[in-house]
Specification:
Length: about 400
């Protein structure tokens, strides 16, 4: 039995008319002889509407009840869509997470999938041509409903595709695929035909909000081919796959940026063992995620420590640091919210040198100062002043030949 998973996001099932477009996509796969697992999100805006109601009583509604509430969003879309298919004579039925079951851990609001009963799904696929599965939800070992975090339907879809050994997991959304950079700020951005899982992980963690990060981790772990494409056209989108030699030949695949950054510099703290630990342990306990860190001795016995945190956590970070100030010997604490992290991403970096030099030179050509540099195997990130974000992205995009189709760039 050939199985394919098709996931449709909230904007794809926003109203009954949109659902008819979705039906056409499903029908096409049926015509090609596939059995189809359709994974749906809640109708656009529904999850937010439910969240807003929940917060009418209290800012901190009980997480387990919140999950009972939020799962209703997807329940509505799968029921309506199944009815639509049935009315057209298609053998279809809806499935909620707990009916499969999709087992998760008990962390309400951000549960992780532990296992999926694929056997029952296979049996059901003998009887039904389409199973319409509610995304974003599962149940824990006590049969309590759980949700997988915002955007979690992507992860439901990829996990189902992995469990059922589906040929592909198609993620239909309101964008045409994954781009070399944000088309809103760079008109030359191009849709990538393929991208490696690792590159996509870096792109999504940088705020390229196409897929929930966990779904990409899942796809990588279980080697699920994921096709990100538009509900509103028939054009092929972007295929997420294991990296191969062709990809390594390309130096850089994309430029990402993240404005959700704040920089803090601790000036002239003691340069002695334990100082860094005394800063970052309390931040970790406060659940503040520190991203870039640099330390550089400034003068004898003293050092500056600079790091970045999500902008929304700056106030809490300052409170923690204020308490430590004396023990650290800090002469000053300098916060800065007007920063942006621009990153160059590509698996080709693993075996090419000189990528950093090209990037730095390009930024210099526009007089853009780099405050912090951090690197990983497939990424170089530069923290710059926020006002230069667009210029930096466009400049880097051009410097790495991303403005042109690869064939043209090579010649
Ligand atoms: N409905 C959920 C959300 O809005 C899950 C999803 O759409 O993937 O985050
Ligand atoms: Mg989404």
């Amino acid at each position: 039995m050939k199985v394919v998973v098709q996931k449709f996001g909230g904007t794809s099932v926003a109203d009954l008319q949109c659902m008819q477009q979705v039906q056409a996509k499903v029908q096409r796969k049926l015509d090609q002889g596939y059995r189809v697992i359709v994974v749906l999100s809640a109708m656009a805006g529904e999850t937010d509407r439910l969240l807003k109601m929940a917060r009418e009583w209290s800012d901190t509604p009980a997480p387990s009840e919140l999950d009972v509430l939020l799962t209703t969003g997807e329940q509505i879309s799968v029921a309506l869509f199944s009815m639509l298919l049935q009315n057209s004579g298609i053998k279809a039925r809806s499935m909620l997470g707990f009916q499969i079951p999709i087992h998760t851990d008990p962390s309400y609001g951000q549960a992780r999938i532990l296992d999926i009963n694929a056997e029952q799904l296979h049996e059901l696929l003998e009887r039904y041509n389409v199973l319409v599965v509610a995304g974003f939800q599962g149940c824990d070992c006590n049969n309590h409903l759980t949700t997988l975090g915002r955007g979690g339907s992507d992860t439901s879809a990829v996990a189902l595709a992995g469990a059922l050994n589906a040929e592909v997991c198609e993620i239909y959304t309101d964008v045409a695929g994954v781009y070399t950079t944000d088309p809103n700020i760079c008109a030359q951005a191009r849709k990538l035909p393929r991208i490696a899982y690792d590159e996509m992980l870096e792109m999504s963690s940088m705020g390229a909000k196409v897929l929930q990060i966990r779904s990409v981790e899942f796809a990588k772990k279980y080697n699920v081919p994921v096709h990100v494409r538009s509900t509103f056209s028939d054009e092929p989108g972007t295929l997420l796959v294991q990296e191969d030699e062709d990809m390594e030949a390309v130096l850089v695949s994309g430029i990402a940026y993240d404005k959700d950054q704040a920089r803090i510099t601790l000036v002239d703290v003691f340069d002695e063992p334990g100082i860094a630990a005394s800063v970052f342990e309390p931040l970790a306990s406060a659940n503040i995620i520190v991203d870039m860190i640099v330390q550089n001795p400034s003068r004898e016995g003293r050092t500056d420590i600079t790091f970045t945190v999500p902008r929304g956590d700056l106030d809490r970070t300052m409170q923690v640091i204020d308490r430590l100030k004396e023990n650290l010997g800090a002469r000053a604490i300098l916060p800065d919210t007007k920063v942006c992290k621009v990153s160059i991403i590509g698996v080709g970096m693993r075996n090419h040198s000189g990528v950093a030099a090209i990037a730095f030179k390009a930024l210099q050509s526009e007089d853009i100062n780099i405050m912090i540099i951090s690197t990983s195997e497939i990424k170089i990130s530069c923290l710059i002043q926020e006002k230069y974000t667009e210029l930096a992205v466009r400049t880097l995009h051009e410097a790495f030949g991303l403005d042109q189709e690869p064939a043209a760039a090579e010649s």
